[in-house]
Amino acid sequence: MKRYQILLMMTLITPFSQTVLGAPVPNREAPPLMIAQATAGTKTATTAKPASKTASGILLKESELKGKPFIDAKTIVKLPRQTRVTIFERSGGWFRIQAAKKSGWVRMLNVKVTAGAQNLGSGTDLSKAASLATGRAGTGNIVSTSGLRGLSEEELRDAKPDYAQFDKLNSYDVDKNTASNFARNNGLTRRSVPYLPAPAK
Amino acid sequence: MKRMILLTALASFTVTARGIDLGDLDKKLKEKLGEQPITKESVKGAVKQAAPENLQRVLPASESEELKAGREVAANLLGAVPLVNDPGLQRYVNTVGRWISMQSERPDLPWRFGVIESNDINAFAAPGGYILITRGLYQNLNNEAELAGVLAHEIAHVLKRHYFDLMRKQALIAEGGKAAEKAASDENAAIKNLVGNGAEIFARKLDKNAEMEADRMAVVLAARAGYDPYGLPSVLQKLEAIRSDDDRIKLLFKTHPTPAQRLDALDKAMDNRLISLGGNSGGKLYPLPQ
User: Fold this and answer.
1) For chain B, where are the alpha helices, taking DSSP H only?
2) Do residues A183 and B153 touch, judged by C-beta distance below 8 A?
3) Which candidate in A149, A174, A189, A201 is best for mutational testing of the B interface (most B CBs within 10 A)?
4) For residues B155-182, b (16+ Cβ closer than 10 Å) or e, as one string?
5) Is B155 part of the contact surface with chain A (CB cutoff 8 Å)?
6) Residues in A touching B126 (Cβ below 8 Å)
7) Nearest-CB residue to B273 (from A129, A180, A196)
8) Residues forming beta bridges with residue B125, ordered by sequence position
């Protein structure tokens, strides 16, 4: 009960700056960069041995903190909406997190990642490129003044077809057998999964 | 008076366009326009309402036409942004993409996948199965399951003919009955009509529901292929963290619902349906050349 009150107070006191979806969140904690490889599911939740690189997030809704990354795993505690969490790794649809000194797993889609999203996997270059360009290394944020240009509407509109490039694209054809062998060698097993219905409005 | 002329024009291509009745499209246009002044916007609105099956009958719609249009659009995009010059990388992306496409309802399209030389963070699905992902997006991926999620989203656009239908609607709006008539008589003219300004189609916004549908299909296609289905949501979380004024993400943000909206829609659609499936994060991503 007390813990809940503290959490609630924390969320009330902590200014929740992210009112506009997709707006940048200033990264107060400046988590070091990295990299927890996503693995499919069976890790048990031990008390978080702090990973050297983490991400931060905030709960979008009340969430059950689970001892293991399974729907039917025991719920340790229910964390209220807007709880700030430290994220250590992703495993399938689960994040291993720490919040208010409790560690465990919550549904990944319950969390809005506010910083260090690029750490939740391995080997990203984007943040590095961006921070090198601006000298803001280590903020964990992807900064805008990278100087790297995107694609403009004008470029798309004014483009002339390049059929030599198209032929090149065509030449990279991979046949079904090659693709199947690749899948077999990488442990990718075909599964029968029906398409998802559109959620009710 | 103006309205009369338009309705007459519509009625006339009911007859001329391959001699087929337009059915709902015609009715919808009339309903929509009944009490409104005829403007480009009102026609646009009415066409938007038309069921794809009806649109199908008016403008080029065969698979061979879809492939031809796709070839033109892809060649145009490659004219703006060439392929990354690394056959190993391109073969790798084709292998992953081909495997996912094999889990779909259109496994025999001439699926091709390419990484293009742009820092923009984006991916494109030209009709017929020509899918291009930018270097900027590729280098932001953390594992193969994320690549699978991105490719599967584009594959879904092709499966549902989202861009092909958009091109056809645009041609219809631009040319009206004339386009349909021409289309009925001459396939090349029809394709030319459709392709219009080529790659510009990728600066257009699809219907929001089409993007959400592609996301829903993508997580399933990835799961069918044996991948962790949460690769795409993971990429979306990364996109969400990119500032919207970053030049590399402007086009994607202009043409798509926000990552937050897409994640919210995926959360509702996925619920806990795929969470116990597990899945493979795949092999190592093929490294980009410097």
Assistant:
1) 2-16, 24-33, 40-49, 52-58, 63-80, 87-101, 135-138, 144-159, 162-175, 177-185, 187-195, 208-224, 231-240, 250-255, 259-270
2) no
3) A174
4) bbbbbbbbbbbbbbbbbbeebbbebbbb
5) no
6) none
7) A196
8) B131
Phi, psi of A63 (to 5 degrees): -135, 140
What would the pLDDT profile of B217-274 be if each residue is shown by its tens digit?
Answer: 999 999 999 999 999 999 999 999 888 889 999 999 999 999 999 999 999 999 999 9
Walk along chain A (201 residues) in steps of 10 and give the mean pLDDT of each run: 44 34 33 32 37 84 97 97 96 95 96 87 38 33 62 92 98 98 97 94 70
Q: Are A183 and B226 spatial neighbours (Cβ–Cβ below 8 Å)?
A: yes
Could you count the other beta carbons within 10 Å of the beta carbon of residue B266? 23
B241 SS3 class:
coil
Q: Region of B217 please: left (phi>0), alpha (psi -120 to 50) or beta.
A: alpha
Whole-structure pTM value:
0.76
* Chain B residues in contact with A62 (beta carbon < 8 A): none
Closest Cβ–Cβ partner in B98, B203, B265 for A174:
B98
Strand partners, A95: A90, A106
Distance, CA of B240 to CA of B237 (rounded, Å): 5
Q: CA of A119 to nearest chain B CA: how many angstroms apart?
A: 8
CB < 8 Å from A in window 48-67 of B: none
Q: What is the pLDDT of residue B245?
A: 86
- DSSP letter for each residue of A105-147: EEEGGGEEEEE-GGGSSS---HHHHHHHHHT-TTS-S--STT-
